[in-house]
Amino acid sequence: MAESPADDHGPERRSERCPDARAEDGRPLPALAVWGLATFHVAALVVSLVVALHVGGSLGELLSGLNTAVGLGVFAYLWALTWWTNRRALTDAWRGDGFDPRAAATRATLWGGVTGVCFLLGPLVLFSVLLVVQGASVLAVLAIALLGALVAAIVGAVIGGAFGVVDVALLRAVDTVRRTP
């Protein structure tokens, strides 16, 4: 049976359009690992922020200004970004009979920076338009946006790198359990 023309583009194209991404060697990337790690990352980040705000005493004030729809929307937006970037990072690190720990940690740092910038991008565009409409200088808004993107990339990379170390430990534990007879 002949393959469809869409499959002639190799693993890189397949990983961009299929939820079951494939590594360079053609092995499927475990979708459960991507979903599980993305969910763990977002949940751990949200819990950390809530605990920090609670300890700081400003959780009540912040929550009084939000509603459920906004909270779910922000969580869903962050989760979707994290799922996408985790998928890209793990696809890049998935090799042979498992994963490359060094590549996993490195790619997690890189894609963590991408997550930070993308997470900032939505609100940044909205506030930039509002500022320009209210008469702010376009150059000043662009300068603030670039500074914000730089800070978001650094913070995202640090958080991504930390989660990358945790991911490597978790994936090594899974490999150890899987290889145990």
Give a summary of the structure in a few sentences.
With about 180 residues, the chain is mainly alpha-helical.
Write up this protein.
The structure is a single chain. It contains six helices and two strands. The chain starts with 9 loop residues before the first helix and ends with a helix. Mean pLDDT is 81; it is low at 1-20. The protein is globular, with a radius of gyration of 20 Å. It has a two-stranded antiparallel ribbon with strand order 1-2. The protein has helices spanning 10-17, 31-56, 59-64, 68-93, 101-133, 138-179, and strands at residues 94-95, 98-99. A hairpin with a 2-residue loop joins strand 1 and strand 2. The chain is mostly helical and 181 residues long. Helices cover 78% and strands 2% of the residues. The longest helix is centred in the C-terminal third of the chain and has 42 residues, at 138-179.
